[in-house]
UniProtKB/TrEMBL annotation:
The chain crosses the membrane at residues 594-614. It is an enzyme of class 2 (transferase). Keywords: 4Fe-4S, Iron, Iron-sulfur, Membrane, Metal-binding, S-adenosyl-L-methionine, Transferase, Transmembrane, Transmembrane helix, tRNA processing. It comes from Urochloa decumbens. Its EC number is 2.8.4.5. This is Threonylcarbamoyladenosine tRNA methylthiotransferase. Belongs to the methylthiotransferase family. CDKAL1 subfamily.
Length: 624
């Protein structure tokens, strides 16, 4: 079938089309109905006529945060048009699968889900990198598909698919608008794509086939989006991209310019934090000092994902990664030196074609040397259509053996050892998968699990680290330390202008520190990256750090939250600047045995009362 743009009439895209984010009239959409078999004698049943926008859509997402953002935008548009979005596939009227093409397993999962959808006789739309990068894939025959740069037209595709038509919308065009309706998976986290595609040509990468060449959003459009989401109460902004470091090279700017523009708009009370996305070494090397200054900013997590992929220069050359191991070391060493508490994550591919035992040993030594807290280890998967797929493969047994060995080395590290007893400020945005803990992150984006009421979601607080695990640490929220960010009336840029106007008045009041904070004021005002040197280390406290909550008691606390809510008190003091201090009162645990005995006692009392009442009625009845 032709692309839908290829069969539009004069009023369609060939004639100028609609601006990004606007829905074209259905009259301009040309589709081909699915062919009916001539062997079927009787006419097959027609799809049940329903009012468009009243159906339920199941949305499933595979892959990276960029894909998640695309799904949130598609869900937002569908929801705005009246469709209901669900996580339950059984009751949905149509399935929308947003796919990932990075590895074989993710594409296999997509294939399995497509089969389930067909067996359930559900209408199906497949979006994302798989249909964009592998348009002729057999599994996609007879299925409506939508490309990565056409997500602003998802409503049209869904409507036509529900009518029984097959629609294909794959042509690349201008970038989708950032102001489309959006339904966030987590209302406190905004995933903000700053560009699509990349400038690389890695020999193993299939994503380049789907996302294409670098295309960056303008700084003005991104800053405008940041202002919008901050006003909506978002507490974390994730900058997402196939290569964050390459941002702006196609439009005459660069990543530091964007980051400085964004942090100038973040609330000065630190209620909204910024997380910088994955960046490959080549495009961050020339901006290391500027990036380090941004990572030191109080409103930016001191965390960066820098994939190395291999510790061997020979393998990196075969991958066409365009950097050396020495340049990766320079990135890591510089950031560790300039940014206090810096945390770095990386990726490793085991068993790339041509990798020798000596090459792999260099990778193991690199991992042992830096002992990074997060290393994403994967086996090499040949992706169809990539140069690496044609290279001589390493025996699969060797690939698996190397993957297991490197994983064993990595899991032997204790990256968070020594944090016990420390007090760290954390930003709480999620409920843990165990349903018991809330998830917070330190300035270095270390995951901290705390037991606290759900009302603390979207707040920050000081937490004392009580124990450390391999992947995260456990902590206790310090009472009276919770900060609830108010809707910002001032941003960092506005604050700096005001400070310049009031310098004489502030000097008359008292002395100021290097960041421009009034030394006798309760107002918390943080400096810009240019003003700041190093941020102070979190204070340390001593005491009993061995106390652990039993899993059973924590589960009970979750279960009885409703019954104990009336006895909880969250006392709010007057606003201080932009902040509000809240006293956290630990929930009072209720014994399961106590609850059961109370229920039995009440049941017994009711039974006795009924027997007494019945006996009285029988005795008062006259006999004949």
């Amino acid at each position: 079938m032709e692309d839908i743009e290829d069969v539009l009439g004069p009023a369609g895209l060939a004639g100028g089309g609609a601006p990004p984010g606007l829905r074209l009239p259905l009259s301009t959409v040309a589709v081909k109905p699915k062919r009916r078999s001539s062997r079927v004698a009787q006419t097959p049943p027609q799809p049940e006529a329903r009012i468009p926008g009243t159906q339920t859509i199941y949305v499933k997402t595979f892959g990276c945060s960029h894909n998640q953002s695309d799904s949130e935008y598609m869900s937002g548009q569908l929801s705005a048009f009246g469709y209901a979005i669900t996580d339950e596939p059984e009751g949905a009227d149509l399935w929308l699968i947003n796919t990932c093409t990075v590895k074989n397993p993710s594409q296999s999962a997509m294939t399995t889900l497509i089969s389930k959808c067909k067996n359930a006789n559900k209408p199906l739309v497949v979006a994302g990198c798989v249909p964009q990068g592998s348009q002729g894939l057999k599994e996609l025959e007879g299925i409506s598909i939508i490309g990565v740069q056409q997500i602003d037209r998802v409503v049209e595709v869904v409507e036509e698919t529900l009518k029984g038509h097959e629609v294909r919308l794959l042509s690349r065009k201008t970038l989708p608008s950032l102001d489309l309706p959006k339904v966030r998976k987590n209302k406190f986290i905004e995933i903000l794509p700053i560009n699509v595609g990349c400038l690389g040509a890695c020999t193993y990468c299939k994503t380049k086939h789907a996302r294409g060449h670098l295309g960056s959003y303008t700084i003005d459009s991104l800053v405008g989006r940041v202002k919008t989401v901050v006003s909506e109460g978002v507490r974390e902004i994730w900058l997402s991209s196939e290569d964050t470091g390459a941002y702006g090279r196609d439009i005459g700017t660069n990543l530091p310019n964007l980051l400085n523009a964004i942090v100038a708009e973040l609330p000065v009370d630190r209620s909204t934090m910024l997380r910088i996305g994955m960046t490959n070494p080549p495009f961050i090397l020339e901006h290391l000092k500027e990036i380090a200054a941004v990572l030191r900013h109080p409103c930016v997590y001191s965390f960066l994902h820098v994939p190395v992929q291999s510790g061997s220069d020979a393998v990196l050359t075969a991958m066409n990664r365009e950097y050396t191991v020495g340049e990766f070391r320079k990135v890591v060493d510089t950031l560790y030196e300039l940014v206090p508490g810096m945390q770095i994550a990386t990726d490793i591919i085991c068993g790339f074609p041509g990798e020798t035992d000596e090459d792999f040993a260099e990778t193991v030594n690199l991992v042992k040397e830096y002992q990074l807290p997060q290393v994403h280890i994967s086996q090499f998967y040949p992706r169809p259509g990539t140069p690496a797929a044609r290279m001589k493969k390493v025996p699969s047994n060797d690939v698996k053996k190397r993957s297991r060995e490197l994983t064993s080395v990595f899991e032997s590290f204790s990256p968070y050892q020594g944090m016990e007893g420390k007090v760290e400020q954390i930003w709480i945005t999620e409920i843990a998968t165990d349903g018991v803990h809330l998830v917070g992150h330190t300035k270095g984006y270390i995951q901290v699990l705390v037991i606290a009421p759900d009302s603390m979601l979207g707040t920050s607080a000081d937490a004392k680290i009580t124990s450390v695990g391999r992947w995260s640490v456990f902590g206790e929220v310090i009472e009276g330390s919770v900060v609830v960010g108010e809707a910002p009336k001032q941003t960092s840029s506005e604050l700096q202008k005001e400070q310049k106007q009031n310098q004489v008045e502030e000097a008359g009041c008292c002395g100021t520190d290097s960041c421009g904070t009034c030394a006798c004021s309760d107002a918390v005002q943080h400096c810009s990256p240019e003003q700041c040197g190093n941020t102070p280390d979190a204070p340390q406290t001593s005491g009993d750090v061995d106390r652990q909550e039993a899993i059973q008691s924590t589960l009970v606390r979750r279960n009885v939250e409703g019954s104990t809510k009336a006895s909880e008190s969250i006392a709010a003091s007057p606003l201080v600047g932009k902040e509000q201090q809240v006293n956290v009162v630990t929930r009072r645990g209720v014994s399961v045995d106590t609850i059961l005995w109370c229920v039995l006692a009440v049941s017994f009392a009711v039974t006795v009362a009924l027997l007494v009442l019945l006996t009285g009625k029988i005795s008062s009845t006259p006999s004949y």
